[in-house]
Structure formats: structure tokens, C-alpha cells
Specification:
- The structure is a single chain.
- By secondary structure, the protein is an all-alpha fold.
- Helices cover about 30% and strands about 0% of the residues.
- The longest helix is centred in the middle third of the chain and has 11 residues.
- The termini are far apart.
- The chain binds heme C (12 copies).
- The site of one heme C has 22 residues, from helix 12 and helix 14.
Length: about 350
């Protein structure tokens, strides 16, 4: 794979109009006008008197670190003509500056600017665009050698396991081998840290309060397989310890989700499908007012609706009888008088 971007180096772009320099320097130089920065020129006072500013008008403006250098660092023996403009000539042929010995390519300017070797602008070169493998999280902070070794930039397998197998085998909390975890680390891990695992459950379990629960709250002792998903298998103790209302004596069904839903953040505010309206109005009273035994299929209306008064409301109502089932049958909404309470829908009379 070729890691280089196929774009022309900034330094190369500068080599478009290569005609100006000598004149320019003459113009920029104060005093002695007769000397020339010419071919095979001997050490020249002209050059020494020039400035970084006057250099801006050559084809090689001095930027970054270059601007602070003494002229003779580049113009060896203060020979000006024929000074190379190609980074590689100065930084590799003259001086072996490349830490990677050309293994990333000889065209330094594809990836670097004279600001600093350390900072490679991602617009010039990035692992993602040039290699097709994005370095994220902790990987971004690593030295290239951490993954590539010192031998060279040969392709490595991008598979996490190829570099992290011993980490996988060495896990204790939880022991991945025993837990039977797949070796596809990204199913649960990012490249940030091993300690913020997440797992895409397909069921309801990661909603509400469950979303913030730690893996080990549900998967005790690192056992993942066979975790039950029925509410009561994890919440039986909660059920047994209820007092208001006491679920056990009340005989509440064990499917908590019927009343508590599947995304609750707490136990309060249970919302169950109670056909008889008890959320507001006259009948928003304690459960035990109607459910006087532990069996919630049984209810009693008569405690509040005394016989004499109730009977008096029903003079001439066919099918009326003074019993709770009958009341509910004619008054399923606990409201009076309307079509819902018509005798046609009433059960057989009797007490
Ligand atoms: C980082 C390296 C570098 C430094 C530092 C530098 N130069 Fe240069 N200079 C060059 C390069 C490269 C060229 C060739 C530009 C071209 O080919 O157009 C050049 C060209 C010149 C020329 C024109 C030579 C010609 O062919 O006519 C003069 C004069 C010159 N520099 C003067 C100076 C002076 C004076 C200084 C110090 C203030 C200086 N340079 C510092 C790299 C440098
Ligand atoms: C294909 C892109 C590419 C090319 C071409 C390239 N480099 Fe680099 N170079 C890099 C990257 C990437 C780094 C690592 C930067 C990092 O550690 O984040 C680097 C690091 C360096 C460093 C070490 C910086 C430090 O101290 O950490 C030096 C020095 C360097 N390059 C010099 C050169 C020279 C000289 C050339 C040309 C002969 C060159 N490079 C060509 C991409 C390149
Ligand atoms: C004419 C020779 C010459 C050319 C051409 C040249 N450089 Fe330099 N550059 C130097 C010299 C000399 C230094 C000072 C080296 C030192 O002191 O370590 C320097 C310094 C640097 C530094 C700072 C190194 C540090 O230690 O901080 C960077 C980065 C750099 N050059 C990048 C480039 C790039 C990129 C190019 C091509 C666009 C380039 N240079 C072209 C001569 C040149
Ligand atoms: C976390 C590990 C890791 C780090 C750190 C890393 N690389 Fe890589 N590198 C890879 C992997 C994996 C591949 C192969 C990607 C692929 O083929 O899909 C690769 C491929 C490359 C290639 C292409 C090699 C080829 O022949 O195809 C280059 C060049 C390269 N990396 C340069 C670098 C440089 C420069 C750095 C430092 C700035 C670096 N890498 C840091 C993992 C890493
Ligand atoms: C080419 C080798 C390589 C590949 C591929 C690779 N890593 Fe890494 N990874 C490393 C190196 C080297 C380190 C730093 C040393 C260490 O902590 O093991 C590291 C560190 C980590 C860390 C930080 C560990 C810590 O101690 O905090 C995590 C998390 C991580 N990698 C996750 C992943 C994941 C997830 C994948 C797959 C998407 C992956 N790695 C692919 C080489 C690799
Ligand atoms: C099914 C999910 C899952 C998969 C797949 C998975 N892990 Fe983990 N991993 C976890 C959980 C859960 C933890 C405990 C940390 C936490 O709760 O965030 C953990 C913790 C770790 C730890 C730190 C704990 C220790 O005992 O050292 C390492 C290292 C680790 N995993 C490596 C890996 C590697 C390497 C892979 C892939 C080869 C991998 N894991 C695949 C879920 C997973
Ligand atoms: C609120 C309880 C709960 C929490 C918290 C929880 N899980 Fe689970 N998990 C379950 C239940 C229930 C199942 C079985 C049903 C299913 O697969 O959805 C399960 C199944 C799994 C499985 C599949 C096991 C198999 O059968 O192969 C894995 C792997 C897993 N969980 C990993 C995790 C990881 C990793 C975390 C933490 C990031 C986590 N779980 C947090 C309840 C939980
Ligand atoms: C695999 C075990 C597991 C299953 C199955 C499970 N839960 Fe949980 N649940 C937890 C854990 C762990 C917590 C957080 C710790 C705690 O508060 O007990 C929790 C918390 C809750 C809370 C918040 C309790 C509080 O104190 O704030 C509610 C409400 C809840 N679960 C309802 C349900 C419902 C409804 C179901 C069935 C649809 C269910 N859970 C199934 C393990 C489970
Ligand atoms: C028939 C409906 C219903 C079912 C089924 C049900 N609950 Fe409740 N639960 C309620 C109601 C109503 C409340 C009171 C809500 C409030 O105070 O806002 C309640 C409150 C609670 C409380 C807090 C009250 C206390 O005394 O601690 C807990 C804990 C609780 N339920 C656990 C469970 C568990 C565990 C299950 C399943 C095993 C379950 N519930 C099934 C209706 C139900
Ligand atoms: C004003 C009377 C009244 C009150 C108060 C009342 N209920 Fe009911 N309940 C009924 C009636 C009537 C039915 C039968 C119709 C229906 O399912 O809504 C019933 C049915 C039920 C059932 C269904 C039993 C079954 O499986 O058939 C449950 C569970 C229940 N109630 C729980 C409660 C709880 C919990 C409370 C307190 C929060 C409560 N009820 C308050 C009248 C009442
Ligand atoms: C806790 C006491 C209490 C219980 C138990 C009770 N009710 Fe009521 N009900 C009232 C009160 C108070 C009123 C308003 C005064 C009245 O009309 O007697 C009322 C009014 C009504 C009305 C007339 C509503 C209207 O629109 O004027 C109907 C119908 C009714 N209840 C039916 C029922 C049925 C059916 C049951 C049993 C499932 C029931 N009640 C259980 C206290 C209760
Ligand atoms: C056969 C059907 C039937 C039965 C059984 C029945 N009701 Fe009624 N109830 C009615 C009708 C119809 C009316 C309206 C009578 C009218 O407006 O003259 C009514 C009126 C009422 C009213 C007065 C409502 C108002 O608007 O003032 C109350 C309270 C009431 N019923 C409660 C009960 C109670 C409590 C029971 C059980 C003991 C019961 N009913 C049994 C059909 C029935």
C-alpha cells in the first residue's frame, strides 16, 4: 500500500516562477550595489546583509523554523545560487533528519511543514485517509512504533485480537474465556479504554434504570450466558419486601412489567391497566377500600354504597340487585345513570 497522498508538495508548488531571485536580492540589499549573488559566488557580504523579509520575495519564503535560522545553515559557505528547494535534499541527503529513514516516503512536504516535524497536519496525512485505518482513543496517543515496531511501516492486521490476544486471555473481571465472550472486541469495547464496556442487548433490559446499571449488577460472578430476563428472577426480594402496597398479601401478579412497565427508573408511579377508573374522582382511594382480600380479582363496592341509599337510586331499574359484581356490570366506569347503566346490559337479578 502506498501511504503517500498523491498531491504536489507545497515546496514544489513554490517552484512555479523561478526567475525572480537575483534581481530581488539586489533590490532588497542596502548599500553596495555592484556585488552579485551569482554562480559559484564566493562567500558574499550581499547575502549576509539580506533579511528573512527580503527572502519572502524569492521562491522559497522562510516560514516556521526556517525563518529563525542563520543564512549559512542553508547557504553553506554562503553560496546562494543553486540552493536546493526540495526538503529531502536538505533534510535527508544533507542531514539525516528523518526519524523514519524515508520509510514513509521521501517527499517530506507531503506530510510536513517547516513549523515542526512533530505535528503532522491531518489535512496532509492521517492514518485514516492514507492507510484506511482510523486511530482512535488511546491509539492516537501511541508512538507509531508501538504498533509497527522499528522494522518499518508494513501493514498490520487491523483485527483487535491480533494485538490484544494476551489482554483477552489475561482478563479476570470478568474472565472473558470463561464467560465465553466473542473475540470481536468492538462488540463491547471502544479504543478508549477496556473499562467502559457496553453491549448491545436486543431486549428491553437496557432501558430506564437498567441503562445505568453496571454489567456485574445483572451478570454476577462474570456469568453472562443464561441470564434470565423475567423481572421477578432479579426482583423477587423487592417484591417480597413491599409494604405499600404489600404485593405479596395483595397477590399481585409476578410480571412486574404489567404495572411497572419495562423502562421505569424507579418503583413509584406504577401504571397498570386498571379498567375501573381509580386514578381520579370519587374512586381514587386506597386499593384496600375495594380489594379487601389478597385476591385482587375480588372487589367490594358495598362498603361505601350502603343499601338503603343505593336501592333508592334504582327504583324502577330492571335487573338491579345489591351486589358488587352487579354494580360493576352496570357501572363499569363508576359513573351513574348513562347508557352504560341501561338494564339491557345488566346481569340476571339476584342477590
Ligand atoms: C531554510 C533555508 C534557508 C535559509 C535559512 C535562508 N535561505 Fe536563502 N534560499 C534558500 C533557498 C531554498 C533558496 C533558493 C530559492 C529559489 O531557488 O528560488 C534561497 C535563495 C536565496 C537567494 C537567491 C539566490 C539566487 O539563486 O539568486 C539569496 C540571495 C538568499 N537566499 C539569501 C538568504 C539570506 C540573506 C538569508 C539569511 C537572512 C537566507 N537566504 C536564509 C533557503 C534558505
Ligand atoms: C507520508 C507522510 C510522511 C512523509 C512523506 C514524511 N513523514 Fe516524517 N512523519 C510522518 C508522521 C505521520 C510522523 C509521526 C508524527 C507523530 O508522531 O505524530 C512523522 C515524524 C517525523 C519526525 C519525528 C518527529 C518527532 O520528533 O516525533 C521527523 C524528524 C520526520 N518525520 C522527518 C521527516 C523527513 C525529513 C521527511 C522527508 C525526508 C519525512 N519526515 C517524510 C509522516 C511523514
Ligand atoms: C535549503 C535547505 C532546506 C530546505 C530546502 C528545507 N529545509 Fe527545513 N531546515 C533546514 C535547516 C538547515 C534547518 C535547521 C535544522 C536544525 O537546526 O535542526 C531546518 C529546519 C526545519 C524544521 C525544524 C526542525 C526542528 O528541529 O524543529 C522543519 C520542520 C523543517 N525544516 C521542515 C522542512 C520542510 C517541510 C521542507 C520542505 C518544504 C524544508 N524543511 C526544506 C534546511 C532546509
Ligand atoms: C494502534 C496501532 C497503530 C498505530 C499506533 C499506528 N499504526 Fe499504522 N497501521 C496500523 C494498522 C492496523 C495498519 C494496517 C491497516 C490496514 O491495512 O487496514 C497500519 C498501516 C500503516 C501504514 C501502511 C502500511 C502498508 O504497507 O500498507 C502506514 C504507512 C502506517 N500505518 C503508518 C503509521 C504511522 C506513521 C504511525 C504513527 C503516526 C502509525 N502508523 C501508527 C496500526 C497502527
Ligand atoms: C496493530 C496493533 C493493534 C491493533 C490492531 C489494536 N490495538 Fe489496541 N493497542 C495497541 C497497543 C500497542 C496499545 C498500547 C499498549 C497496550 O496498552 O496494550 C493499545 C492499547 C489499547 C487500549 C488501551 C489499553 C489500556 O491499557 O488502557 C485499548 C482499549 C485498545 N487498545 C483497544 C483496541 C481495540 C478495541 C482494537 C480493535 C478495534 C484494537 N485495540 C486494535 C495495539 C493495537
Ligand atoms: C461481550 C462483551 C465483551 C467482549 C466481546 C469483550 N469484552 Fe473485554 N470486557 C467486557 C466487560 C463487561 C469488561 C469489564 C469492564 C467493564 O465493566 O466495563 C471487560 C473488561 C476487559 C478488560 C479489563 C478487565 C481485566 O480483567 O483485565 C480487558 C483487558 C478486556 N476486556 C479485553 C478484551 C479484549 C482484548 C477483547 C477482544 C479480544 C474483549 N475484551 C472482548 C466485555 C467484553
Ligand atoms: C439490567 C440487567 C443487565 C445489565 C445491566 C447488563 N445485562 Fe447483559 N444481559 C442481561 C439479560 C437479562 C440477558 C439475557 C437476555 C438477552 O440476551 O437480552 C443478557 C445477556 C447478555 C449477553 C449475552 C450472553 C449470552 O447468552 O451469550 C452478554 C454478552 C451480555 N449480556 C453482556 C453485558 C455487558 C457487557 C453488560 C455491561 C455493559 C451487560 N450485559 C449489562 C441483563 C443485563
Ligand atoms: C437480570 C436481572 C434483572 C432483570 C431480569 C430485571 N431487572 Fe430491574 N434491575 C436490575 C438491576 C441490577 C437494577 C439496578 C439495581 C437495583 O436498583 O436493584 C434494576 C433496577 C430496576 C428498577 C429501579 C429500582 C430502583 O430501586 O430504583 C426497576 C423499576 C426495575 N429494575 C424494573 C424491572 C422490571 C419491570 C423488569 C422486568 C421487565 C426488570 N426490572 C428486570 C436487574 C434486573
Ligand atoms: C398489579 C400491579 C402491580 C404489579 C404486577 C407489581 N406491582 Fe409493584 N407496585 C404497584 C403499585 C400500584 C405500587 C405503588 C406505586 C406508587 O406508590 O406510586 C407498587 C410499588 C412497588 C414497590 C415500592 C413500594 C414498596 O412498598 O416498596 C416495589 C419495590 C414494587 N412495586 C416491586 C414490584 C415487583 C418486584 C414486582 C414484580 C415481581 C411488582 N412490583 C409487580 C403495582 C404493581
Ligand atoms: C373503587 C374500587 C377499586 C379500587 C380503589 C381499586 N380497585 Fe382494583 N379493581 C376494581 C375493579 C372493579 C376491578 C375489576 C375490573 C378491572 O379489572 O379493572 C379491579 C381489578 C383489579 C386487578 C385485576 C385483578 C385480576 O387479575 O382480575 C388488580 C391487580 C387491581 N384491581 C389492583 C388494584 C390496585 C393495586 C389498587 C390500588 C392502587 C386498586 N386495584 C384499587 C376496583 C377497585
Ligand atoms: C371508598 C368508598 C367507595 C367505594 C369502595 C366505591 N364507591 Fe362508588 N362512590 C363513592 C362515593 C363517595 C361516590 C359519590 C357519592 C355517591 O354518589 O354516593 C360514589 C359514586 C358512585 C357512582 C355514581 C357516580 C356518579 O356519576 O354520580 C357509581 C355508579 C359508583 N360509585 C359505583 C361504584 C362501584 C361499581 C363500586 C365498586 C366497584 C364503587 N362505586 C365502590 C365511594 C365509593
Ligand atoms: C341493572 C343495572 C344496575 C345495577 C345492577 C346497578 N345500577 Fe346503579 N344505576 C343504574 C341506572 C340505570 C341508574 C340511573 C337511574 C336513574 O337515573 O333513575 C343507576 C344509578 C345509580 C346511582 C346514582 C347515580 C346518579 O347519577 O345519581 C348510584 C350511586 C348507583 N347507581 C350505584 C350503584 C351501586 C353501588 C350498585 C350496586 C350495589 C348499582 N348501582 C347497581 C343501573 C344499575
Amino acid at each position: 500500500m502506498n501511504p503517500h497522498r498523491s498531491k504536489s508538495a507545497p515546496a514544489m508548488a513554490l517552484a512555479v516562477a523561478i526567475i525572480v531571485p537575483a534581481l530581488l536580492i539586489l533590490a532588497a540589499r542596502p548599500g553596495t550595489g555592484q556585488e552579485k549573488a551569482g554562480a559559484a559566488a564566493p562567500p558574499s557580504r550581499v547575502g549576509q546583509q539580506g533579511t528573512a523579509e527580503s527572502h519572502d520575495r524569492t521562491n522559497f519564503p522562510l516560514t516556521g523554523k526556517h525563518r529563525t535560522l542563520a543564512c549559512r545553515e542553508c547557504h553553506i559557505n554562503l553560496v546562494f545560487e543553486g540552493t536546493p528547494t526540495d526538503c529531502e535534499v536538505c533534510h535527508w541527503q544533507r542531514r539525516q533528519d528523518d526519524r523514519y529513514s524515508l520509510r514513509l516516503g521521501a517527499r517530506c512536504a507531503d506530510c510536513h511543514t517547516p513549523q515542526s516535524w512533530k505535528k503532522v497536519d491531518p489535512a496532509f496525512w492521517s492514518h485514516e485517509t492514507n492507510v484506511g485505518y482510523k486511530l482512535e482513543g488511546i491509539h492516537r496517543t501511541l508512538d507509531c512504533e508501538a504498533c509497527h515496531g522499528s522494522a518499518g511501516f508494513t501493514a498490520r492486521s487491523p483485527d483487535c485480537l491480533s494485538c490484544h490476544e494476551s489482554d483477552y486471555r489475561g482478563t479476570r473481571e470478568p474472565n472473558h474465556v470463561e464467560a465465553g465472550f466473542p473475540t470481536t472486541c468492538p462488540s463491547c469495547h471502544s479504543q478508549r479504554s477496556w473499562s467502559d464496556a457496553s453491549f448491545a442487548h436486543t431486549g428491553f433490559l437496557r432501558q430506564g434504570r437498567h441503562a445505568s446499571a453496571a454489567c456485574s449488577d445483572c451478570h454476577k460472578n462474570g456469568v453472562f450466558q443464561g441470564t434470565p430476563s423475567e423481572c421477578v428472577s432479579c426482583h423477587l426480594a423487592d417484591y417480597n419486601s413491599t409494604t405499600d402496597p404489600n404485593h405479596r398479601t395483595a397477590g399481585f401478579p409476578l410480571d412486574c412489567s404489567a404495572c411497572h412497565g419495562t423502562a421505569a427508573t424507579g418503583w413509584s408511579g406504577a401504571n397498570f391497566d386498571h379498567a375501573f377508573p381509580i386514578q381520579s374522582g370519587r374512586h381514587a382511594v386506597a386499593c384496600s377500600e375495594c380489594h379487601q382480600t389478597s385476591d385482587f380479582r375480588v372487589f367490594n363496592c358495598l362498603g361505601c354504597h350502603e343499601k338503603p341509599t343505593t336501592d333508592s337510586h334504582h327504583t324502577g331499574v330492571t335487573g338491579y340487585s345489591y351486589n358488587s359484581q352487579a354494580c360493576y356490570a352496570c357501572h363499569p366506569q363508576g359513573s351513574g345513570g348513562g347508557p352504560a347503566a341501561r338494564p339491557a346490559e345488566a346481569p340476571a337479578a339476584g342477590r
